[in-house]
Amino acid sequence: MSTDRKSYDVAVIGGGLVGASIAYGLAKSGQKVAVLDEGDIALRASRGNFALVWVQSKGMGMPEYAGWTVRGAGLWPGFAAQLKEETGLDVTLQQSGGFHLALSEGELEKRAALLQRLHNQPHMLRYDYEIMDRSRIEAMLPEIGPEVVGGSYCPLDGHVNSLKVFRALHMAMERAGVRYLAQHGVDSLSYRAGEFSIITPKGEVRAGKVVLAAGNGNARLGPMVGLEVPVRPQRGQIVVTERTQPFLRYPVVTVRQTDEGTVMLGDSVEEAGPDPTVGLPILSSIASRAVRMFPRLGSLNVVRTWAALRVMTKDGFPIYDQSLSCPGAFVATCHSGVTLAASHALLVAPAIAAGGLPQEEFGVFSSRRFHVPASA
Amino acid sequence: MFRRLPEAKGDTVLITVDGKPVTARAQDTVAAALLAAGIDHCRTTPVTGAPRAPYCLMGVCFDCLVVVDGRGNRQGCMVQVADGMRVETQQGKRDIAR
């Protein structure tokens, strides 16, 4: 065990998309940063996600989250260009707009009502979306099957190659001077006299600030520094086909063709605890709905399936918070590490570097929102 | 590159490869027929376009993908030839329509 007590301005705990985005942004803000990561055994949502940069339908119950998401999607083009310039990696961002498809009149009515309620919320930042009938969708997605009756389209939606984003962020953060420490799963952390001591199997790391970006691990780590982070794993399963010539011009929330030609089918929601295994009942229903949307998918071979664990709060919104009892301890956690990557690098990180998360911007995302008496 | 063993016997069938007639043994797999006919690559890869030829010949490596009777991404080593079969070498990604 090392007794070398390295000291940093900020230690970011977690090297996934959220941690890497924030670490990169902190280094760009002049901070001396270490990222403490578990290594390959980590339950890594960053490697299992569906890679959408997605806006439509987010924010029911918290219009500020809709605004935050719109802003994040808007930052993406510049961020992708910045990553390319710094790493040479093209993350193949495509923000062409995206679809949610309905397979019955009932589904379409439900969808239209949901989006209308969303946009009727007080303080909602309104953005363009359209409910389209079948013929309009067919003009944009000629491969839709006869069961598609319509859907919603939002021009702000898009997708990206999230594995390339993950790789680019790690390259960019290391080039910006971030020290990446693998196999540094955190056993405990404590705060004393303005400094954090972080104990890992590889030794102690010290830092003036600490950012918890450990996904579902934040639930365990938060209380050690006076932060409450009620998150739980929520399983999603994904089916991937062999590569084909491009045929889907727009991403659909459950079907998207990647830059390299595979088609990814998602995205299920299960409360299954920390179990990242796949199961045929869910996979077959994912495949069946996808084939009803795009019948030609039925001729493709499936080459991979996997499950990953979302990082989910009770209300589904992110938590950005700072500790009152341990000043300098922050938490950032969400289930949209792709959509919000630019926001984390360009907005959250500079605020943390400057000393704190401004209440007027981030107060709504504090976990204090969960401290309301349960109503009957 | 490959020659058939002199003692190899059996019926022959006629297939086409990219429209050209090729004689194969009735027991051949598509991959074996291509190799015996001196066809040195059967596809190009979907991402970089590199040429590929049959490799493992036992269904594992997926390097022998070809279009068989209009259907893409068939493993040539796992499909037996048949008289009149239309085989096409595959350029890059399979087309979802075929």
Task: Describe this protein's structure.
Chain A: One of its GO terms (molecular function) is oxidoreductase activity. Chain A: This is FAD-dependent oxidoreductase. Chain A: Keywords: Oxidoreductase. Chain A: InterPro entries: FAD-dep_OxRdtase, FAD/NAD-bd_sf. Chain A: It comes from Azorhizobium oxalatiphilum. The complex is a heterodimer of chains A (376) and B (98). Chain A is an alpha+beta fold. Chain A has three domains: 2-50 and 163-230 and 315-369, FAD/NAD(P)-binding domain; 98-155, no CATH class; 232-313, 2-Layer Sandwich (D-Amino Acid Oxidase, Chain A, domain 2). Helices cover 30% and strands 26% of the residues of chain A. Chain A is built from ten helices and 17 strands. In chain A, strands 1, 2, 8, 9, 10, 11, 16 and 17 form an eight-stranded mixed β-sheet that branches. In chain A, strands 13-14-12-15 form a four-stranded antiparallel β-sheet. In chain A, helix 1 runs parallel beside helix 6, helix 3 (63-87) packs across helix 6 and helix 3 packs across helix 9. The mean pLDDT of chain A is 95. By secondary structure, chain B is mainly β. Chain B has a single domain, classed as Ubiquitin-like (UB roll) (Roll). Helix content of chain B is 7%, strand content 31%. In chain B, strand 3 (43-44) and strand 4 (51-52) form a beta hairpin. Chain B is globular. Chains A and B meet through loops of A and strand 6 of B.
